[in-house]
Description:
The chain is α/β, with parallel strands linked by helices. It folds into 2 domains: 1-39; 41-160, Spore Coat Polysaccharide Biosynthesis Protein SpsA, Chain A (Alpha-Beta Complex), CATH 3.90.550. It is 45% helix and 14% strand. The chain has helices spanning 4-39, 65-76, 95-103, 121-131, 150-160; strands at residues 54-60, 83-89, 110-114, 136-140. It has a 4-stranded parallel beta sheet, with helices on one face. Helix 3 links the parallel strand 2 and strand 3. The longest helix is centred in the N-terminal third of the chain and has 36 residues, at 4-39. It is globular, with a radius of gyration of 20 Å. The two termini are 33 Å apart. The mean pLDDT is 84.
Amino acid sequence: MMSDHKSGWIRQIHKLIRFDAAKTSAKHFTSIVRLAQGTAPPIDAAQLANGPFMSFVVVLRDTPNNHLQSLVASFHAQPARSAELILCDYASADRQTLAWLTAHERAQGVRIVRAGENHDIVSATNTAIGLARGAWISLVGPNDALGPCVVQLLAQTAKQHPQCQFIYTDEVVSDEN
């Protein structure tokens, strides 16, 4: 059995390691943001001629408001009219989530869809995709946030590779929440 002094010391080491990892991750994320902001070109007008370039589809159920707020804020940081955000709720019961969705029904560029109780995540996803108007569709988790300039960078990639049908993007985990 470990002494209390030794186990306390080990806990402190683990905290320092987690803190250092979080600090390193934050520095990495900051460098990615700077790179994106410095290299993202404007979206070609032809890519917006028939509506938004990108439809971000988010399927949610009882998602905490702070996650939804971060997601919408990151969406509004994208160029105006370059994308739409479709939030498809499938049978949330949480009053705070429902109130948040109702309060944001008229947010610019955001479409809130109530899939109803008879939907599961797959049918709710298909419902939202069916409503998408963008030339491209991106599936986004309800606890995610969009990186700065993501629409411009994806539009640039699509323009440089007109034959592609799928573009893979990665994620940066910024914290435990």
